[in-house]
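Researcher: I'm preparing a figure for a lab meeting and need a structural model of a single chain. I don't have an experimental structure, so a prediction will have to do for now. The sequence is pasted below. Please return the structure as tokens so I can convert it later.
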Amino acid sequence: MKTIFEPFRIKMTEPLKSTTKEIRIARLEEAHFNVFLLDAEDCMIDLLTDSGTGAMSAQQWAALMLGDESYAGSRSWKRFEETVHDITRMKHIFPTHQGRAAERLLALTWVQAGQLIPNNNHFDTTRANLEFANASAIDLPCEESAKLDDDFPFKGNIHLGKLKRLLEDCHSNIPFAMITVTNNAGGGQPVSMTNIREAKKLLRGYEVPLIIDACRFAENAYFIQRNEEGYRDYSLIDIAREMFSYADAATMSLKKDGLANIGGFFVCRDDAWAEDFRNALILQEGFPTYGGLAGRDLEATAVGLYEALQSEYQEYRHATIEYMLKKLIELDVPVVRPAGGHAVFLDAASFVSHISAKEFPGVALVNALYREGGIRSVELGSLMFGKYDKAGVLIPARRELVRLAFPRRVYTQSHFDYMIEVIASVWENRETLRGLRIVKEAPFLRHFSAWLEEL
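Model: Understood. Here is the structure written out token by token.
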């Protein structure tokens, strides 16, 4: 059949609070035009992030009851360790309370001031942790990624030519390179197995380790299975294992493809890396067999990692995102193509072309979606990624995007149809939207807490 339906049935419901446009206008003003500062109950459809916002399965809820809360060497730790090892085949496995904790400890132990860390695209917390260590996070997206309306299937690839040149010139100052799967900052686009393999070959020639940011590894495996020659008959877990086989280490937020509400990990092959990370983990997160997580969370993520690799689940998740993207394309709404793995990305620069980058067009669009229909999304543009030069002038981000990140197993097709209706309404009235300016901001990750006002 052509219809791909949700591979689950609903056993429990959570009420959504309906709000009026007048209420939403007032709430947005109270939040200083930053949707991060809204109360969740005032968001009818919450697409701020897919991180930790999904619905757990009956099997995961059952696993919670098996949680062994022993401080060291619990049964839950053993189940978690076995699962992560089965998928990644890494020697050393360390749980953390979420992905950015793994990034923070990695930066603490293996990054020095002045070093360079290349990536296809660093996402916000990765970049912030590296820059907090006074290193430079270098983005090397492939050329195809610049064409937002092109349907090239692996626009998340790292630019191999630029990586080669960087290695030739600076390899002694590169502690490791990273590849993010899928490429969140670049529109949720996947990375091909060929690209990972070729990047590893370049890095091996200069003895530079490769770290995979594996938040959405299962979604990336699905794209490889569907679109890369030679992988159609591979299982998703075997594709995932091959991806990890090219890595020396990996960080992961289990709040994405772990299908859990909390958790993360760092895994590696090198004994020296493991020893340094273990010592830092004990100091800042907890004993290495729980890493800041309860035993019940270790159990839930051990189940969730396998569920994320189920073909039926991935087919449903991608079908819903592609359904929405297709409808928006029919309405001529500017979007990033093809559909990403976890979100639909609106091209804010084209959507509100009358608003310049220095006036944060993505934030203007995010606020309009909330005012019009109670949809909370997030800007991936010059508020999140823009920087200042020495004179204090804004250096805009490469793109001005708005991400509609879909929590896993939460919303149904009627919710998607409602979202399409809201976006269409904002699109029809886009000329009325106004830019913004920053009133107050933090030195790192300013988009989480900044105050803005409309111009």
